[in-house]
Structure formats: C-alpha cells, structure tokens
Amino acid sequence: MQIFHKIITAIDITKRYVSLARGRKSRGILTLTESFYAENKENEDPSKKLAELAKKIKPDVEDIVAVNFPNENLLFYTVDAPGGLKPRDDREYARTEVSRLLNLPSNEIVVETIRTPIRKMLVTVSKQKDVNEIISAITQAGFSEPDVVLPDPFKYLEISEIATTTTCVLLLFTPEYAAVIILISKIPVAVRTFAYSTWEMIDILAEESGFSVEDIHKSSEALESSNISSMVTSFLADLPYSVERETIFLLNSVLSGTSIREVSKFYILCDPPALTSFYVKAFNQFETFQGKVEDAKFSVKSAEAGVGVLGVFVRGGAEFGKNKLVQA
Q1: Domains in the chain: ranges and CATH
Q2: Backbone dihedral region of 214: left (phi > 0), alpha (psi from -120 to 50 degrees) or beta?
Q3: Element (H, E) at 84
Q4: Alpha helices, DSSP H only, in 77-160?
Q5: How many Cβ atoms sit within 10 Å of the Cβ of residue 170?
Q6: Cβ atoms within 10 A of the Cβ of 219, count?
Q7: Which of 211, 216, 284, 306 would suit a FRET pair with 255, their CA atoms being 20 to 30 Å apart?
Q8: Which pLDDT value is given to residue 321?
Q9: Cα–Cα distance list, 68 to 118, 161, 171, 265 (Å)
Q10: Residue closest to 155 by CA, chosen among 165, 170, 136
Q11: How far is CA 108 from the centre of its chain?
C-alpha cells in the first residue's frame, strides 16, 4: 500500500509499439523513474506486449493508471454553446447534440467537452463499447482499471507549449495519423485527423542511418549526423499540399470567413521528435506556410521516454494537481 506518494503508470499503445512509463508524484513533483518500449511485429496484437510489460513491472493495485485511447475510435465535433448554458451542463448538452448528429442512442456514446473562447465547445466522442474494450484490455493484461483514458491527440497537447494567443494551428504527425488542431488563446477549438504515418519515414531512416527504430523513437539527436536530408525532403514534398487542404476545410467549418493566411503561426509536432526539423523545413518551403512555421516546444523533456507516453504520464500525474516533472 502506497501511503506517502502516488505511483503513476502511463501506457501508450499503438499498432507499431507499446510504451510504458512509471514514476511517482510527491508534493507536486512528478518524477519519471523507469520506462519501457516494445515494438510490435507486423499484425501482432499489442495486448501481448502489454501483458509482458505488466509481468515485468508487477504493478501495484494502488497505482494510478493512465492510457491513451486510439484515434481511430474517436470523432471530433465543434458545436455551438447556447448562451446561458452552465459549465456543469456542457457534457449532457453535447451528448444530446452528438446523439442527434450520429443518430445513435445517447447511452451508447461517451463525450468530453472543452469550452472555447468563441462560444463553441470542442466535443470528443467515442462509443461506450470501444471505451469498455480498452479498459478490458488493460485489466486483462494485469493492470488496475485505468483512472484516465486520454484521447490520443491530447497526449501531445499535455506537453506542448503554445506561445501564440491568437489563432494558430498545431500540426501533429504521429505513428498512426496526422491531425490539424486549431487553437485560440492556447485552447483547442477544432480537430481534424487524416490518414498518415510517420513510421513510413522511420523505416527508411532506420535503414539509411543505421540507428534502431527505438533510438529514433526516443532521441531527437539520433539523426543529426546522418546525411539523409535530401532524401527526406523529397519524401515530404507533397505533404504541405494535403495539410493545406485539411486546414482550409477545418477553418471553413469552424471559423467561417477566416482565411488560412490569417493564421498567425503553424506549430509542428512529430512523434518521434527526431523528424520535426525535416518537417519544419519542408513546410517553410511552401508559400502558404512560409515564415509562419516552427517546431512545437515541449514543457517537459526526457531522453528515456517517447513523447506519446510522456504526455500520458503527465496527464496521469495531473490527477493530483499541477505537475513539476523531474527525471530520477
């Protein structure tokens, strides 16, 4: 039984790998003590790796468990918030609206809401059965029932420092998807995801650079000495066109009348971060983004854990108030 501190177990599950981070929270200080990474073989069930990690760490029943929720089972809506709606009623109102839009019974969906500065709510939606499946997978692997089930894109927002208070866009490129996130006053107001995978790039870089996939996944310095810039630039040549289309569509849907040229800043965040400088360079060569692109800074850093699991870890620690992260 843990009396003087709380142990946080963070679990980040993707189709390509399972990552786990553990640490403790004491007097507001969140300390990362150990991390694990296990790559999945092609078509391998991630639950097997999760069970292997559970046997290795032997989790305590008192652990605070936080896990990401897969993006493929998420929907995002931005809905109008009627005047006079009290914050405590946001979730029920959003559930009713989304139930109508999807033509699904309200008891079959789970919603989470974020109030925005523009009298709208960002609503994250999943099916109750999908949430139950994630919880079941975690407990069957040997962990306690999750205290936090975090929608996947938000694990990155947990550790991103967005300095711009005007309308800006965070561009996420992850192992399983890409996302355009519009923020106003640092608050997300709309999310649009689309098919993409940084792992196509990672596989090439691992082969050409000689670094292992795990090295690239964890270390932003892993590729600095590699002579592969021109190859990567060619690989990314068409991506800005796709992102421009997705951004314009999202702006028209949520901020009617706002042009993409009115966006003050585009922040790029890659998982793994080792790829970020390549993406920033590619976007800065495209007219729409030129002069407005920079890498997203992280509020916390660790050479031992990937950014995905680190975001889940920070969110787990937030169950007990604000965090100050250190590494043991």
Answers
A1: 6-69+136-154+304-327 (3.30.420.10), 163-298 (3.30.420.40)
A2: alpha
A3: none
A4: 90-102, 128-141, 152-157
A5: 22
A6: 17
A7: 284
A8: 53
A9: 28, 20, 19, 27
A10: 170
A11: 24
Q: Which two tokens stand for residue 210?
A: 């000689």
For the record, the structure tokens of 295 come out as 């890498």
My answer on whether omega of the bond before 46 falls inside 30° of 0, hence cis, is no
Q: How far is CA 14 from CA 11, 40, 64, 133, 271, in A?
A: 10, 9, 21, 15, 12
- In this prediction, residue 328 carries a pLDDT of 43
Query: What is the per-residue pLDDT for 218?
Result: 61
Residue whose C-alpha is closest to residue 115's, from 86, 74, 154: 86
| Whether pLDDT at 288 is above 80 | yes
pTM, two decimal places: 0.90
SS (H, E, C) 302-313: CCCCCHHHHHHH
Q: Which has the closest alpha carbon to 47: 18, 22, 68?
A: 18
**Mapping DSSP to helix (H, G, I), strand (E, B) and coil, where does residue 278 land?**
helix
pLDDT of residue 319: 75
Residue 168 CA to residue 184 CA, distance in Å, equals: 7
Q: What is the pLDDT of residues 150-204, one digit of tens each?
A: 999 999 999 999 988 899 999 999 999 999 999 999 999 999 999 999 988 888 7
CA distances from 298 to 220, 301, 307, 310, 314 (A): 12, 7, 9, 10, 12
Confidence band for 296, pLDDT divided at 50, 70 and 90: very high
Q: At what angle do helices 46-57 and 128-141 cross, to 10 degrees?
A: 40
> In DSSP terms, which residues pair with 8 in a beta bridge?
23, 64
User: Whose structure tokens read 């569509």?
Assistant: 249
Tell me the pLDDT tens digit for each residue of 247-277.
999 999 999 889 999 999 999 999 988 888 8
- Report residue 322's pLDDT band, with 50, 70 and 90 as the boundaries: low
